[in-house]
């Protein structure tokens, strides 16, 4: 609504005048089943809400009109849509021949309906055989087709049908950037492709806060608790019906053994569904005390059921697409969704050939909570689609144009026909400051926010959320699409769970803190968390000297000493997430005391805190200041004063710095002898002061086989924020299975 209030009314007027005297666009939406209606309904509501621009005609066919599948046309009526035409097009039999006959019957009946309606454009969704009949009829009758969810990849005959509809369609609305690239690779016209996201996400991302317990109790019983039940939805695989029926039988056996309350939805109308229903009845599922078997659940209620389930199991596209919006665990069985992009909440059991495999998957997944995934949408698909519809020029030639190779890279059409920059929200939790930034895929810091880091847990978390919300809102204005949130923090971190296990003394009240859940819930974005040293290494791997290097080590020289180790292109965390605590390598048995409680650590010699300690000692003995230096009374002695004194010839200050450089160098030698990296990167404010000392120690102390290692100073201005961003950017851009 806010978006449309800010739209240019002049542009809309020009489009309508171009289409001829304020001609309203006549849109026909044809829906075939409960699944496609959940995607089409948000668009239909949007069209209906703008009668000054659109006329809507609704055609219902397919399994909507079959009692065995719930007579789901009723939910369209309940949504207050006028159904212009009902077409009975399903030939019963639920086998391959019946599917072909159903397509033929639809082709016989549709021409009369389309002749009467004469729509300007028909909206067709997905990859079902009914949709193929719709697209074929419209294309042959010279009606423009807008295809929703083209370009995606999955298993079964659906893949072929989806791509066939793509070739018939004139305009395309896709949900992911990969799908967009597939459409471009299929020679579709770049200017007729809209990357909008999935329309159902517009409803999903605002659904979880509604009252849900009454819905759960209605479908599963009064005694059921949230996260303590399963939703099962499994369809036949039309290219291997026998195997899919066997897999369904094994799934039911595993669910019976798992002994949790389960809502089982009947399969769709594809070939093999009749046999699957027989399996359900043979095992007594409809009368089993732990099971509730239903033909249909209204989409609004289904959303609540999967959002609060302990697990969803089956092979429905809903499991790998919509359910990710809530972080609910999903077990995807078999090959029906092979190729789909999925969030980390999905566990694939490709070859579910035994009950034990499925049972083991249930034991692994049930009751977990994953970060919310927005791979398939950000909740703003419908405004984009409506604007796209308004931009269609009916005077353009109807004949499709194909863009044959070579294909342009990274061409995208979005809300304003401009490319949104894929970006991350990066959060850096330091001892003094809390920083949030929008970071682009190329490592550019588009916008940065800085506040003092609060002293208490509650205030700190509240400020993080506030700053992230502000940055996410600003991302829209600077044309950035946020893929997730990356957090760099001091202390020991469990990156798998997003929990700070134990903090440094510089950050108070920061142990056993779950950062992932509250931030993911508030922003509806996936969240990654790691130690600041590890983040620095990741920043170097993606943007700095470590790019393309298989084995390297990053050492941060700042207030403390930290680092990260990259081995065979992967970050090493260790068995208890304590790897790369490089500042606590001991280089002297009787050295100064470290903040960790030990003695002789690198950090006790070479950190900013250690240098400040030595500077204070010299200052207290009136041995720090030399000619050319001055200090105000209230000025605090720091490591910078020690460095300045050494540069101006203070022998004692210079000796302290040399000792610090030697200690750091000895630590690096130990790392070389342990990990044998090909590169050592010194990062942080003290790096340039230590690099020559480190090289000198290596030349004197290291084994000849590692003396040739490169030691360089980082050229990254902000490794903590860039590393936090790379947590998101590296992960979200490789989640294509």
From TrEMBL:
Highest taxon of the source?
A: Eukaryota
Chief place where the protein resides: cytoplasm
Q: Reply yes or no: does the keyword Cytoplasm apply.
A: yes
Q: Where in the cell is it found?
A: Cytoplasm, Cytosol
**InterPro entries, alphabetically?**
ATPase_NBD (IPR043129), ROK (IPR000600), UDP-GlcNAc_Epase (IPR020004), UDP_GlcNAc_Epimerase_2_dom (IPR003331)
Q: In which pathway does it act?
A: Amino-sugar metabolism; N-acetylneuraminate biosynthesis
A single GO molecular function, which one?
A: hydrolase activity, hydrolyzing O-glycosyl compounds
The entry marks the following residues as binding an N-acyl-D-mannosamine, namely 492, 504, 532, 581, 584, 603
User: What residue stretches are annotated with the UDP-N-acetylglucosamine 2-epimerase domain?
Assistant: 53-390
Active site, UniProt feature:
532
The record lists Zn(2+) as bound by 584, 594, 596, 601
Q: From its record, what is one biological process in GO terms?
A: UDP-N-acetylglucosamine metabolic process
Q: Which reaction does it catalyse?
A: an N-acyl-D-mannosamine + ATP = an N-acyl-D-mannosamine 6-phosphate + ADP + H(+); UDP-N-acetyl-alpha-D-glucosamine + H2O = aldehydo-N-acetyl-D-mannosamine + UDP + H(+)
Pfam families reported in the protein's UniProt record: Epimerase_2, ROK
- Enzyme Commission number: 2.7.1.60, 3.2.1.183
Give the record's keywords alphabetically. Answer: Allosteric enzyme, ATP-binding, Cytoplasm, Hydrolase, Kinase, Metal-binding, Multifunctional enzyme, Nucleotide-binding, Phosphoprotein, Transferase, Zinc
The cellular component terms of Gene Ontology attached to this UniProt record, alphabetical and capped at eight, are:
cytosol
Which family does this protein fall into? Answer: In the C-terminal section; belongs to the ROK (NagC/XylR) family. In the N-terminal section; belongs to the UDP-N-acetylglucosamine 2-epimerase family.
- PANTHER family reported in the protein's UniProt record: BIFUNCTIONAL UDP-N-ACETYLGLUCOSAMINE 2-EPIMERASE_N-ACETYLMANNOSAMINE KINASE, ROK (REPRESSOR, ORF, KINASE) FAMILY
Q: How does it assemble?
A: Homodimer. Homotetramer. Homohexamer. The hexameric form exhibits both enzyme activities, whereas the dimeric form only catalyzes the phosphorylation of N-acyl-D-mannosamine.
* Protein name (Swiss-Prot/TrEMBL): Bifunctional UDP-N-acetylglucosamine 2-epimerase/N-acetylmannosamine kinase
- Organism of origin: Podiceps cristatus
């Amino acid at each position: 609504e806010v978006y449309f209030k800010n739209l240019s009314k002049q542009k809309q007027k020009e489009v309508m005048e171009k289409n001829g005297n304020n001609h309203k666009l006549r849109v026909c939406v044809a829906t075939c089943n409960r699944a496609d209606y959940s995607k089409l309904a948000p668009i239909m509501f949007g069209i209906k809400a703008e009668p000054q621009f659109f006329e809507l005609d609704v055609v219902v066919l397919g399994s909507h009109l079959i009692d065995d599948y719930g007579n789901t046309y009723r939910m369209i009526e309940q949504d207050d849509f006028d159904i212009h035409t009902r077409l009975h097009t399903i030939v019963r039999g639920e086998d391959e021949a019946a599917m072909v006959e159903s397509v033929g019957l639809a082709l016989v009946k549709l021409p009369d309906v389309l002749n009467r309606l004469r729509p300007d454009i028909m909206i067709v969704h997905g990859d079902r055989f009914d949709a193929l009949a719709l697209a074929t009829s419209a294309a042959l009758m010279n009606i423009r087709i807008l295809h929703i969810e083209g370009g995606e990849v999955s298993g079964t005959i659906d893949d072929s049908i989806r791509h066939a509809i793509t070739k018939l369609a004139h305009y395309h609305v896709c949900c992911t950037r990969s799908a967009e690239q597939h459409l471009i690779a299929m020679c579709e016209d770049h200017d007729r492709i809209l990357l909008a996201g999935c329309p159902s996400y517009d409803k999903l991302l605002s659904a979880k806060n509604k009252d849900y317990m009454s819905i759960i109790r209605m479908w599963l019983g009064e005694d059921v608790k949230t996260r303590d039940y399963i939703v099962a939805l499994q369809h036949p695989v039309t290219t291997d019906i026998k195997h899919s029926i066997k897999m369904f039988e094994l799934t039911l056996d595993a669910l019976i053994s798992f002994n949790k309350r389960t809502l089982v939805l009947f399969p769709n109308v594809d070939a093999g569904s009749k046999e699957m229903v027989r399996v359900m009845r043979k095992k007594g599922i409809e009368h089993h005390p732990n099971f509730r078997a239903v033909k249909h659940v209204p989409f609004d209620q289904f959303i609540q059921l999967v959002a609060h389930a302990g697990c969803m199991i089956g092979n429905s596209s809903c499991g790998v697409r919509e359910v990710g919006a809530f972080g609910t665990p999903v077990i995807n069985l078999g090959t029906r969704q092979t190729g789909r992009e999925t969030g980390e909440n999905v566990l694939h059991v490709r070859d579910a050939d035994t009950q034990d495999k499925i049972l083991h998957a249930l034991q692994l997944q049930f009751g977990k909570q994953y970060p919310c995934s927005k791979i398939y949408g950000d909740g703003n698909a419908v405004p984009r689609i409506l604007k796209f519809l308004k931009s269609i020029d009916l005077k353009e030639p109807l004949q499709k144009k194909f863009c044959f190779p070579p294909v342009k890279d990274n061409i995208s059409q979005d809300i304003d026909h401009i490319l949104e920059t894929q970006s991350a929200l990066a959060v850096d939790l330091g001892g003094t400051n809390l920083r949030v930034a929008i970071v682009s895929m190329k490592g550019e810091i588009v916008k940065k926010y800085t506040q003092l880091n609060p002293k208490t847990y509650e205030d700190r978390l509240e400020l993080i959320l506030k700053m992230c919300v502000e940055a996410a809102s600003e991302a829209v204005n600077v044309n950035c699409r946020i893929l997730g949130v990356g957090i760099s923090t001091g202390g020991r971190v469990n990156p798998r769970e997003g929990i700070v296990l134990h903090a440094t003394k510089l950050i108070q009240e920061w142990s056993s803190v779950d950062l992932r859940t509250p931030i993911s819930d508030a922003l509806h974005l996936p969240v990654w968390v790691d130690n600041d040293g590890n983040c620095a290494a990741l920043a170097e791997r993606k943007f700095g000297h470590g790019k393309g290097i298989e084995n390297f080590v990053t050492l941060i020289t700042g207030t403390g000493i930290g680092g990260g180790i990259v081995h065979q292109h992967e970050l090493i965390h260790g068995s208890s997430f304590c790897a790369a605590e490089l500042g606590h390598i001991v280089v002297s048995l009787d050295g100064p005391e470290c903040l960790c409680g030990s003695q002789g650590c690198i950090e006790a010699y070479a950190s900013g805190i250690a240098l400040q300690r030595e500077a204070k000692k010299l200052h207290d003995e009136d041995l720090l200041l030399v000619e050319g230096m001055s200090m105000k009374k209230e000025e605090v002695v720091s490591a910078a004063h020690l460095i300045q004194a050494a540069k101006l010839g203070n022998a004692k200050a210079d000796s302290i710095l040399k000792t610090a450089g030697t200690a750091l160098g000895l630590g690096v030698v130990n790392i070389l002898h342990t990990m044998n990296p090909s590169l050592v990167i010194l990062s942080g404010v003290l790096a340039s002061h230590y690099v020559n000392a480190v090289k000198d120690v290596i030349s004197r102390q290291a084994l000849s086989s590692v003396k040739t290692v490169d030691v360089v100073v980082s050229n990254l201005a902000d490794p903590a924020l860039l590393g936090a961003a790379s947590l998101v950017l590296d992960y979200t851009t490789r989640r294509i299975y």
